[in-house]
Amino acid sequence: MERVIMIKYGELTTKKGNRNFFVKSLYQSILNKLEEYDVKISSDLSRMYIEFNDDDLDKILKRINNIFGIHEYLVAFKVETDIEQIKKQVLEIIKNENFNTFKVETKRSDKNFPIQSIEFSQMIGGLILKNTNNKKVDVHNPELLVNIEIRKDFTYIYTNYYYGLGGYPNSTLGKGLLMLSGGIDSPVAAYLAMKRGVKIEAVYFEAIPHTSIEARNKVISICQKLSVYTKEIKLHIVPFTELQEEIYKNVDKDYVITIMRRMMYRITSKLAKKRKCLAIINGESIGQVASQTLTSMNVINSVTNMPVIRPVACLDKLEIIDIAKKIDTYDISILPFEDCCTVFVPKHPVINPELEACQEMEKKLDYENLIQKIIANINTIVITEKDESEFKDLL
């Protein structure tokens, strides 16, 4: 019995004139993820088919489960579009199924097939009843659903399917620069942005010796977790120590976080334009901390004219944690290593900062020259799913 993996597109089918672009992008994403396996991929406007070696099936399905742009995927039995061949295959399939009730659904794409969909479902249902004992048809809530898709050359028969991640294929809608802190929220923001077809590069601000090498390790490990959804992630490590110390020395303590975030946005904007990114992405959630009130966001955001995407802005913490656990970043994010955003947090940071006050305090800082120096000394590494030991020389 020949088997193929069938991919159903879902949202991609709504793209009309651009559908070919999205299907080709999904094809390339799958090809990249399965490059180490002996597969053959074919596609049409509604389905994609992957021929594979049986020994690799479980590994391939695990990879497919991490590809954006897939609505459903399944393993189907492929037979010639011949009535007797279809009947024979259905009886072989149900031998391995444990069920008491069932339903048959037929989709007849080949309109030259001599029997209409409903009639063929009834025929196959009668065949199953005749060749099994004590089985019943249940059209509303069957224990076993036998799906038959009749096409011109081949017919596909399957009983189980899995939901994919949905969204758009990787890199179809441009590139964004993610402000990655190492906390719980920003990895979730990365995942949600990638789901919408945004290619991710990440920027991490560190202030050695105030932040630790372990904090950097956290971020690298998070990037490795996120890289399962894409081919690789470029991580830009920003040496923030000198500017952060200047801020702490010269700025009112309750404004330290606000000014620091404004500087981070300035640096991120310059780096984003240099890397040809179309937007800044971060894990800010409305009201979660002092710098994420609407007033704070407005004052901080005013230093850039780039779009800022906040995928978790309207999620509460428990919702964000649920996604973090789903994508396996939560346990890394809660490791007790402080980043730039927490190491100098004052006891009472300003909740409703004034723009004019920020601008006056920033006059005390030679931040333009410091930012140029920082940009010139950013260290960039490329991270994949490989072992973290490959980055030891950078740590």
Features:
395 residues; alpha/beta; Rossmann fold; 9-stranded mixed beta sheet; 6-stranded mixed beta sheet; 15 strands
Describe what is shown at a glance.
This protein has helices at about 20-35, 55-65, 85-95, 115-130, 185-195, 215-225, 240-250, 255-275, 295-300, 315-325, 330-335, 340-345, 355-360, 365-375, and strands spanning about 1-10, 40-45, 45-50, 70-80, 100-110, 135, 145-150, 155-160, 160-165, 175-180, 200-205, 235-240, 280, 310, 380-385. By secondary structure, the protein is an alpha/beta fold.
**CATH architecture type of the largest domain:** 3-Layer(aba) Sandwich
Give the N-terminus to C-terminus distance in angstroms.
52 Å
Approximately what portion of the residues adopt beta-strand conformation? 15-25%
User: How many β strands by DSSP?
Assistant: 15
Radius of gyration, in Å, reads 27 Å
Question: What is the N-to-C succession of helices and strands?
Answer: EHEEHEHEHEEEEEHEHEHHEHEHHHHHE
